[in-house]
Amino acid sequence: MKKLDSGVNYVRYAIGELHVVALRDGYVDMPASRLRQAGDRRFGSDLPAQVELVDGRLRLSVNAFLVIGHGEHILVDTGAANAWEPTMGSLLDALNEAGVARTAIRTVAVTHTHEDHVNGLVAADGSDAFPNLERLFIPQEEVPIFDEIGRLSRFRGRRSSVRDGFQLCAHVTAVQAHGHAVGHTAYEVSSAAGDTLLIWGDIVHVPSIQFARPELTWEYDANQTEARSTRERLLRRAVQPGFYVAGAHLDFPGVGTVTQYGAVFRFNQL
């Protein structure tokens, strides 16, 4: 996998015959107390030096990823548009900067139904962000949640459910990654050259500490025990050769490899 070009809000990569575009939707600042130890105990106030704070808070990138190949444009997650903090909502600008027409996106797959992953289906002006959308994939367990989001009611007729192993197309497959959300789902992108990219959503929220200490969870994890187990499982998988990861909250552009040193993992950004 190699970097091809970039701008302020996008980075384009080649993975075999496919292109993947990392898109910046923005960022959100959260208190460090959102980090949790076993038993839902707050992580201590003395953070390691490598954990940078901005005005005393953790700054989490909000990223989405576009997979282009074989005549298809598949967008994984949509950002928040104007439905959450004003520091988000740049995804459509990122697409424009990358030279990608939003009319080209006919398939959207979401990792889960939290605001910063699904609300960008509707643009800030109230129009459909992707006017030619035909297929909208929602994790099976979260379809009832999606159907209760009033902002997104217009899409109910186009949404389909996905479960572990479901193939969106020949090169993109859903991977069960439950824990952070009841139906949290990653999407594995496989190239003909043999390289693999796992777009893993919210497996890691705070990369500066959760790679070194993957047992730390997040206050908003629906099931912290399951989230911890899933993170450790996917990290062990990610260290194999030719394997790359892309994360919604890894520092933009959020694409890289994972290496392991004993019980400690390290993220290496491309």
Sum up the structure in keywords:
270 residues, mainly beta, eight-stranded mixed β-sheet, 13% helix, globular, 5 helices
Short description:
The protein has 270 residues and is mainly β. Helices cover 13% and strands 36% of the residues.
The average pLDDT score comes to: 96
Radius of gyration: 17 Å
Assign the CATH class: Alpha Beta
Oligomer description: single chain
CATH homologous superfamily caption? Ribonuclease Z/Hydroxyacylglutathione hydrolase-like
How far apart, in Å, are the first and last alpha carbons? 9 Å
How much of the sequence lies in strands comes to 35-45%
Architecture in CATH? 4-Layer Sandwich
Regions with little confidence, pLDDT below 50 for 5+ residues: none
Structural class comes to: mainly beta
Domain count: 1
Any idea of the CATH topology?
Metallo-beta-lactamase, Chain A
Overall geometry comes to: globular
Number of strands: 18
- The percent of residues in helical segments reads 10-25%
Biggest sheet architecture: 8 strands, mixed
Please provide the ordered H/E string of secondary-structure elements: EEEEEEEHEHEHEEEEEHEHEEE
Strand order of the largest sheet: 1-2-3-6-7-8-9-10
| Count of helical regions | 5
Question: Can you describe what's shown?
Answer:
By secondary structure, the protein is mainly beta. The protein has a single domain, classed as 4-Layer Sandwich (Metallo-beta-lactamase, Chain A), CATH 3.60.15.10. The strands form three sheets. Strands 1-2-3-6-7-8-9-10 form an eight-stranded mixed beta sheet, with helices on one face. α3 links the parallel β9 and β10. The longest helix has 15 residues. The model has no long low-confidence stretch (mean pLDDT 96).
